[in-house]
């Protein structure tokens, strides 16, 4: 990658100021930024505010539904959830409006903060060395917002300027910019700020695992490198992707030549969302619930847990609609009586019959071992059975628990529920306090496999693919395993991503990047409503009509209009 000097980085940064966009949002007073951001501590407060638009997007479940339940792997049969049915348009954009508004709010805030930090350094309020980690973190946050925008909408307006009264109108009227160009600019910027000095970078953030030590939930160098690598795959910059992932491997470990060590260091049992700030994670959307304290929650678990039963009571009595800890015929005390579930997302037939069937030895299917005494210790993608109690059992001693089939899936060929990877134990109503895994190191390893395959290095592609396969307890694979076909090997990478990253905010973005989203989803999604609405243009969500109006017609939804 051509960034061998910091001067090259500065030149790239100057080029980033050539375009822009903004939300219809009140401007932050320039005098406020001049008067307030005068110390590193004050700037740290500003960085904290730049995280808010992430929380505002992922605080519910609709972003997850839009990315995971409109694919070949999962559906949500809820007629009024337009994100799941794809009954959307520019005038009915559903979650597209949430993503657009929050991401551009994030862009606006990060741009303003970067400009304020630069002014404060120029004024001598604090040093460039003190500013380096603050700017680095803010630049990674800005890249995350553009990652969500380009993956969701494709070509979008791109700008890195601070919005002022003088430039507000021009920024608001910017048209779409090529997503390829946007990604290229961000790749150069991220690598410049995050690479170690030995590779010509500024190393503005410490090159360490995201959740080592103090477990502060901040976006760091690892997340920035992950975003840059994903941009490289979108733009087919395969060699650059391998180089960037190599820096991630320096942080998380090199396992291509010793795949067995991966599972020892990063066990499958860490993958469920209920396991927080695990060593393998690169970025988690954090939640917390305390009855009389912090309550920062989502609601994915409420839409991915088996149906909950009502208690039996007299008609009209206070207990008539009281919930129980019985879930589709099994009493599961750890899920609690205070939880509330809704219409759940379900795996497609293609997923549970072909990709990750009951009969598979893959530990990620969540099935119990043959002697029915303990789980396979997998990530629990699916659940046909669970260890619990009969609904009528009044006394529930842990030693008396037994593995039972859920009522609606009493055979391996029946449709299972989503597994405990997504469940939230002791959930209060729909307040899901799990951490949502967004980026994990396993994802980077599978990206490396794909990049090596695209460069014709099938041996290294297999080595990276087999890291996650070995951890899951399934046989290693080589090119000869699929008859020497590179395309067949690529399909194995797609299947492995489906097994490993199921439900982790990746699937639709992957399918769109591969250019197969519409065909695969139309063929395999057997939900009740989506097949009636899906169209090729749904690969990207529509820009909300109000944003088109606000831009003075500079923006468009040409695919939807056609």
Structural key phrases:
13 strands; mainly alpha; 3-stranded antiparallel sheet; 562 residues; globular; two-stranded antiparallel ribbon
Strand-helix topology:
Layout: H1 6-15, H2 30-36, H3 40-50, H4 52-58, H5 62-68, E1 74-76, H6 82-85, H7 95-122, H8 128-153, H9 168-172, H10 179-194, H11 221-234, H12 238-252, H13 260-265, E2 281-285, E3 288-289, E4 295-296, E5 308-310, E6 323-327, E7 330-331, E8 345-347, H14 349-355, E9 382-383, E10 385-388, E11 402-405, E12 417-418, E13 436-440, H15 441-454, H16 458-472, H17 486-500, H18 507-514, H19 517-524, H20 545-550, H21 558-561
Structure, explained:
- This protein has 562 residues and is mostly helical.
- The chain contains 21 helices and 13 strands.
- The strands form 6 sheets. Strands 5-6-7 form a 3-stranded antiparallel beta sheet, with no helix packed on it. It has a two-stranded antiparallel ribbon with strand order 1-8.
- A hairpin with a 5-residue loop joins strand 3 and strand 4 (295-296).
- Helix 1 packs antiparallel against helix 10 (179-194), helix 3 (40-50) runs antiparallel to helix 7 (95-122) and helix 8 packs parallel to helix 11.
- Residues 2-31 and 313-320 have low confidence and may be disordered.
């Amino acid at each position: 990658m051509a960034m061998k000097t910091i001067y090259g980085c500065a030149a790239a940064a100057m080029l980033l100021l050539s375009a822009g966009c903004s939300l219809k949002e009140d401007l932050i007073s320039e005098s406020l930024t001049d008067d307030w951001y005068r110390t590193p501590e004050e700037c740290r407060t500003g960085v904290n505010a730049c995280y808010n638009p992430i929380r505002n997007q992922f605080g519910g479940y609709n972003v997850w539904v839009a990315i995971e339940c409109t694919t070949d792997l999962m559906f949500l049969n809820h007629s009024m959830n337009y994100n799941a049915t794809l009954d959307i348009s520019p005038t009915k954009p559903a979650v597209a409006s949430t993503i657009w508004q929050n991401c551009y709010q994030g862009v606006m805030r990060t741009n303003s903060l970067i400009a304020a930090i630069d002014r404060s350094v120029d004024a001598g309020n604090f040093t460039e060395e003190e500013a380096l980690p603050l700017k680095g973190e803010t630049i990674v946050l800005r890249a995350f917002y553009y990652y969500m925008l380009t993956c969701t909408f494709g070509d979008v307006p791109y700008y890195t300027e601070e919005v002022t009264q003088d430039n507000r109108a021009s920024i608001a009227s910017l048209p779409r910019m090529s997503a390829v160009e946007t990604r290229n600019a961000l790749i150069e910027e991220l690598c410049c700020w995050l690479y170690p000095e030995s590779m010509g970078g500024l190393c503005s953030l410490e090159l360490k695992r995201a959740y080592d030590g103090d477990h502060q939930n901040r976006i760091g160098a690892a997340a920035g490198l992950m975003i840059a690598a994903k941009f490289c795959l979108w733009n087919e910059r395969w060699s650059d992707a391998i180089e960037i992932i190599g820096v991630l491997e320096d942080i998380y470990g090199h396992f291509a030549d010793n795949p067995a060590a991966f599972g020892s260091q990063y066990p499958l049992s860490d993958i469920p969302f209920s396991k927080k700030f695990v060593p393998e994670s690169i970025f988690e959307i954090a939640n917390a619930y305390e009855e009389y304290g912090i309550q920062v929650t989502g609601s994915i678990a409420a839409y991915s847990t088996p149906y909950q039963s009502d208690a039996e009571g007299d008609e009209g009595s206070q207990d008539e609609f009281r919930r129980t800890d019985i879930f589709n015929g099994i009493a599961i005390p750890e899920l609690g009586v205070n939880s509330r579930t809704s219409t759940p997302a379900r795996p497609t037939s293609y997923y549970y019959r072909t990709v990750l069937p009951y009969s598979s030895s893959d530990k990620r299917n969540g099935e119990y071992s043959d002697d029915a005494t303990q789980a396979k210790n997998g990530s629990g993608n699916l659940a046909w059975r669970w260890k619990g109690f009969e609904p009528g059992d009044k006394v529930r001693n842990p030693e008396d628990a037994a593995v039972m089939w859920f009522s609606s899936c009493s055979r391996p060929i029946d449709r299972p529920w989503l597994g405990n990877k997504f469940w939230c134990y002791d959930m209060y109503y729909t307040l899901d306090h799990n951490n949502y895994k967004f980026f994990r190191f396993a994802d980077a390893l599978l990206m490396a496999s794909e990049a090596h395959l695209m460069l014709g290095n099938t041996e290294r592609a297999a080595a990276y693919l087999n890291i996650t396969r070995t951890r899951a307890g399934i046989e290693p694979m080589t090119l000869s395993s699929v008859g020497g076909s590179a395309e067949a090997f690529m399909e194995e990478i797609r299947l492995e991503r489906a097994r490993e990253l199921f439900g982790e905010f990746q699937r639709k973005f992957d399918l769109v990047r591969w250019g197969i989203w519409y065909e695969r989803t139309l063929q395999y999604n057997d939900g009740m409503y989506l097949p009636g609405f899906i169209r090729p243009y749904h690969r990207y969500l529509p820009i909300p009509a109000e944003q088109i109006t606000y831009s003075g017609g500079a923006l468009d939804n040409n695919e939807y209009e056609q």
